[in-house]
C-alpha cells in the first residue's frame, strides 16, 4: 500500500520524464522569447468542476523541478471535495517556471483528481453495503504509483501492487498448470503461507474446484449478477469473494450482492474522465 507521504518521492522519476518530454533539448521556446529571465509571477490552480483533490505534492514537485525557487502552496488537502471555481493551489516564483510547468502539473492533477473523483463516487454508491471498491493492475505504464494513490485518496482500496506482492491464479496460469487443483497445489507448495491464494473462476464448476482446492479468495470473473448470487451460495463463507469484470459506474448497483467482499474495477484507473482544472496567472 502506498503511504500518502511517499507519493512525491515515488513520482519524481516520472515527473522528470514528463518535463523532459515537454521541454525537450531547447526548453520552452515561446516563454523564453516572451518572458524576461528575472520576471516573477504568481498563479492559481482552479477547479472548473466539482472534484476530489488529488496530487498536490506532485504538482509542487513539477514546479520545483521546472525551475528551483518556485513555491507551490496547496489550498486544499488531498482527499477533500471542492466545487467549481474553487482555488485548490497557488504557485509563485519565476514566471518562466510557472509557464514551463503549467501543462505538466495540470496533466498530473487532471488525471489524479479524475481517478480520485470517480473512485469516491463509486465508494459512495457502495456505501449501503460492506463491499470494498478496489483497483486492478490495469494502469497506465509508468504511473501506477500515482493512479493507485489516487484510488486511495478517493476512498478505494488497492489490490496487489504488481506480480511480486500477491498471488492470483488466472485463466492462463490454470491452462499452463493443467487445471485449478494443479495450479493451487503448485503455488501453495512454492509460496507456503506468505500470500493468500486467489483463484480466478469463470463458471460455477470453476468455483467448486477452487473451493475444493482450499483457495483463500475466489474471483468471480465476468459473471452476471444471477450467477454471482449462485456462486455466493455455493461458497457459503468458506472463502473471500471478489467480483471482477463487466462492472462499470453505470451498473455497479447490480453487483452489490450480499456475500461479496470486494469489487475490482479496471475502469477506475484506465478510463476515469480527467478532471477539469486550469491555471490562471494573477500577476506578473
Brief account:
The chain has helices at 7-23, 29-34, 56-66, 95-125, 144-153, 171-177, 180-191, 204-212, 225-235, 267-270; strands at 40-47, 51-52, 71-74, 81-82, 87-94, 132-134, 167-169, 197-201, 217-221, 240-244, 262-264, 277-283.
Give the arrangement of secondary structure elements.
Layout: H1 7-23, H2 29-34, E1 40-47, E2 51-52, H3 56-66, E3 71-74, E4 81-82, E5 87-94, H4 95-125, E6 132-134, H5 144-153, E7 167-169, H6 171-177, H7 180-191, E8 197-201, H8 204-212, E9 217-221, H9 225-235, E10 240-244, E11 262-264, H10 267-270, E12 277-283
Parallel strand pairs: 6-11, 7-8, 8-9, 9-10, 10-11
Antiparallel strand pairs: 1-5, 1-12, 2-4, 3-5
Helix pairs in contact: 1-3, 3-4, 4-5, 6-7, 8-9
Can you characterise this structure?
It is a single chain. The relative contact order is 0.16. The protein is built from 10 helices and 12 strands. The chain has 284 residues and is α/β, with parallel strands linked by helices. The model has no long low-confidence stretch (mean pLDDT 95). Helices cover 42% and strands 19% of the residues. β8, α8 and β9 form a beta-alpha-beta unit.
Query: Mind summarizing the main beta sheet?
Result: 6 strands, parallel
Give the C-alpha Rg. 23 Å
Query: What's the number of domains?
Result: 2
Helix content: 40-55%
Shape: elongated
CATH architecture of the largest domain: Alpha-Beta Barrel
Low-confidence stretches: none
End-to-end C-alpha gap? 42 Å
Number of E strands: 12
CATH T-level topology of the largest domain = TIM Barrel
The largest beta-sheet arranges its strands as 6-11-10-9-8-7
CATH superfamily of the largest domain: Aldolase class I
Q: What is the helix/strand order?
A: HHEEHEEEHEHEHHEHEHEEHE
